[in-house]
Amino acid sequence: MKGKISKYEELCQAYVLAKQNTQTTYQACKRFVEGFIIAMSEYFQTSINKEKVGFDEDGLMHFCTALTLYENPNHKDNSSSETIFISWSVENILDNYILMLYPWGNQYKLFENELDKFEEIYQYIFEIIKETYQSPIKLSQKEKHTVRHLCWPD
User: Fold this and answer.
1) Does residue 2 fall inside a structural domain?
2) At 52, is the secondary structure helix, strand, or coil?
3) In which domain, by residue range, is 125 found?
4) What pTM value is reported for the model?
């Protein structure tokens, strides 16, 4: 019987389709995060780096943003600094993205080009960072650069 596929071949086709759908979702998440970080850099008027990118078994993309603050931003080379890491995850469902901010659990449902909602998130991050500096910080006599994790530890 020509034209009829075996059960095994049908399973192989299901696997190929699932793999293609997963790759499409991964690419969509990566594009979304790139746009999110570019807009975040514009909002804060400095470069924001993306680090520790990976996908879990459920298809969630996890990543950290890194923002470096300087004692004297006009003379970064001769200035003390601190890099702040913030943890995120993003999930793509149809044409929506669910962005999660860890460890606070804030969840944002967004479309790719909802820049006004992006700004709400950036303002929230701004307030969190500013609030962390209301308490005394650890100063190091030896190190010119420190790290602050506003996220789940590795």
Assistant:
1) no
2) strand
3) 7-150
4) 0.81
